Amino acid sequence: MNKKMEKLLIECITEHKENVYRLAYSYVKNADDALDIVQEAIHKAFSSAGSLKAESSMKSWFYKIVVNTSLDFLRKHKRIQIVDDQTLEVHGPVSEDQYANLDLKKAMDELPALYRSVIVLRYFEDLKIEEIADVLNENVNTIKTRLYTALNKLRITMSDDVLREVK
After folding, report:
1. Which helix (H) or strand (E) element contains residue 89?
2. How many structural domains does the chain have?
3. 20 and 93 inside one domain
4. pTM of the prediction?
5. What are the residue boundaries of the RNA polymerase sigma-70 region domain, all occurrences included (predicted)?
6. Domain of 89?
């Protein structure tokens, strides 16, 4: 890897470190595992930086590595860990993007991972549809459909919760 590419990769990792941690955490729901995933993703990024064709796609390329590393981790460990809100506050990163609405958090947790990933990448990580398609290795139209479906599922879940509260 040449020095310029190495410098750009370090800048990309440094600039997006909190976002990729949150992304990994959204998959594994455990602070230590999320840190391990980020560390492994950084190692993979440096190992395969030669395969990166365009510097402009470095961010989505790195996010893709984080997503794939998270999925590998989940497949390897085949476990679900429930984390209470207090633990999440203590171990989670401090930022503006925390769930302010507990109903939204609950609804997000109930979404299948397929849809939750699209929502997290689009609205919490602020990626464009094309970047999400690249990260998840899917067609742009597939991502649009998943996003539409996920938003509808959230809308239905959230409106059902409101109706239950009113009764």
Report:
1. helix 85-91
2. 2
3. yes
4. 0.65
5. 13-79
6. 1-98
